[in-house]
Amino acid sequence: MAEPVPNPVLKIENLRKNFGGLVVTDGISLDINAGELHAVIGPNGAGKTTLINQISGLLEPSAGAIYLNGEDVTALPPNRRAALGLARSFQITSVLPRFSALENVALAVQARSGSSYSFTGRADSETALNDAAMQALTEVSLESRADVLAAHLSHGEKRALELAIALAMQPKLLLLDEPMAGTGPEESERLIVVLQRLKGRFAMMLVEHDMNAVFALADRISVLTYGRILASGAPAAVRADPAVMTAYLGEELE
Amino acid sequence: MSLSVTAAPRAYKFEAVPIAIFLVLALAPVAASFGAESYLLGLFTRVMIYGIAALALDLLCGYGGLVSFGHAAFVGIGAYSVAILGSHGITDMTVTLPVALIVSAVFAFLTGTVCLRTKSVYFIMITLAFGQMIYFVAGSLSPYGGDDGLTVSLRSTLFGFPVFENDRALYYGVLLFLLASYLLCRAIVYSRFGRVFRGARENPTRMATIGYDVFRYQRVAYVIAGAIGGLSGFLLANATEFVSPAYMSWQRSGELIIMVLFGGLGTLHGAIVGAAAFLLLEDLLSGVTENWKLIFGPMLVLIVLFARGGLLGLGQSIKERFSRG
Ligand SMILES: Nc1ncnc2c1ncn2[C@@H]1O[C@H](COP(=O)(O)OP(=O)(O)O)[C@@H](O)[C@H]1O
Ligand SMILES: [Mg+2]
Q: Which of A15, A23, A50 to mutate to test the pocket of ligand 1 (most atoms within 8 A of CB)?
């Protein structure tokens, strides 16, 4: 008798999204298994962010379905998906600028520990929340900046804070939208080390232009162009795929 | 580079100011007894009553970024609850106060469900529209005076005792309600709930993706603010012994916003200072000239434009300028 196959953490079926006449997601199907790091690469405008927005619930797909651990979440709002273990970072930094780094993360912890319909006591002195938040900040080496307002962090530190917020949610699936965008080579290196350490703890989708990062981290790579998956597979296979080479080097070959 | 560290909201830093405000309010009747007592008592009672409504509005605007242009509606609902029940012989606050609170809370829940689906300027417009709606409803209540309004023949009693009959007793009753409202709003701001509410103003998308149903949190805050507005109306009807649709006109809603801006947005106690400054100025200027509104209007604009943090913020920024040397 065959073992029942476990559900993939994320399963996308035939997803379509168009903005008016512009088709930005053109029948994408993919899945991510537990502990797997699935990288999605592709040129600007390929539809990577739009894909992540649909998975996280900020955009409604025009057609198709999204499953989290086997549950159909296509119609669920973002907060319900977060409660099911989905966390994400944003390509354009999205934090709470007038909250300290620690409070940014503590809010993510708070969302997963008890009711937030509590009207007494000081949330910012709840030790359990702050300790867990500090732990997430430590994971991304931001612990020394815990009390600094998010608005006053450097760009690289904000990128790290994005990641800490997501980690504090103790996700089952983490979607990272170009976490290295706009950071210098040193900070990129640091982030690769952090992601390397996180790898395997939960399923991850990594959208990234930094090919060093992608090839160092990915278990699987999907190449996206014009809203379609051009190729998908192990890094070595994708690298050798002639269609990928044409898509990426096409202009130079002409 | 200086990095200001403020895990807590601004208000926490100067506790001395709210304490001073409440001390002044507690002692004001003593000072008033040496002068035009009933006039001063009446004026300060109104200051505190509008302070309560402004406080609730500051919770919405200053902490939640929800600029409601219809907050006077709740004041009106609270006031009409007292007057309408009174016209049927029901004057005990064990009934009238809960009714005022519940009706305004229900109105906040229903209208909030619609308003909070919209953002920024649309939110302002739709709260204004609901405010005007209730204004016209009140004007059409012909059994209860229609446009002319309705007198409140008996101030609210408590278990039959005429606790509000004496102006001074009413004053201290209002002060107690103001203190309670202030402490409640303060507790909310620092609580888990308040942190989510404040976060939703900063970045609702982020809050949604970390797991919060932003709309529901905002609606709860809207209901609380609406009920506090209703409390203010309950007291206003008792203080003026009269209600009219004018209590919920858009001008009144605008005045409440100005009070909040006046005192300094997002401080809570600033709303009380703002209400005081507004009503005292209005009173002063209207005593000087008939065309006081011509002076008052531009003055408001200047204060709101140039004193970014309101009157309290003005003091703060002057202090900073000097301490920097
Ligand atoms: N809200 C929107 N309305 C219209 N077009 C959009 C919208 N969001 C994205 N697009 C378009 O969809 C395409 C894909 O965008 P995006 O998903 O951001 O690409 P990527 O992240 O791969 O760079 C782009 O051509 C972009 O202009
Ligand atoms: Mg993108």
A: A50
> Which of B:209-238 have CB within 8 Å of A?
209-214, 217, 220
Contacts of A107 in chain B (CB under 8 A): 195-196, 199, 207, 210
- Predicted confidence (pLDDT) at residue B38 exceeds the cutoff of 90: no
In this structure, the strands spanning A10-19 and A86-88 are: unpaired
Q: Which residues from B are below 8 Å from A99, CB to CB?
A: 7, 198-199, 202
| Ligand 1, atom 9, residue with closest C-alpha | A50
Closest CA to A55 of A5, A6, A8: A8
List CB contacts of A70: < 8 A, sequence separation 6 or more: A7, A11
Q: How many degrees, rounded to 5, is the angle at CA A214 between CA A212 and CA A218?
A: 135
Interval B137-151 mean pLDDT = 86
What is the total count of domains within chain B? 1
Helix (H, G, I), strand (E, B) or coil at B291: coil
Give residue A2's pLDDT: 62
Its ipTM equals 0.93
Whose tokens are 């949604």? That residue is B208
**In this complex, is the C-beta atom of B250 within 8 Å of any C-beta atom belonging to chain A?**
no
Pair B47, B280: CB distance under 8 Å? yes
Domain of B198, in residue numbers? 18-29+37-275
Domains, in order of start, for chain A: 6-85+173-254 (3.40.50.300), 94-170 (no CATH)
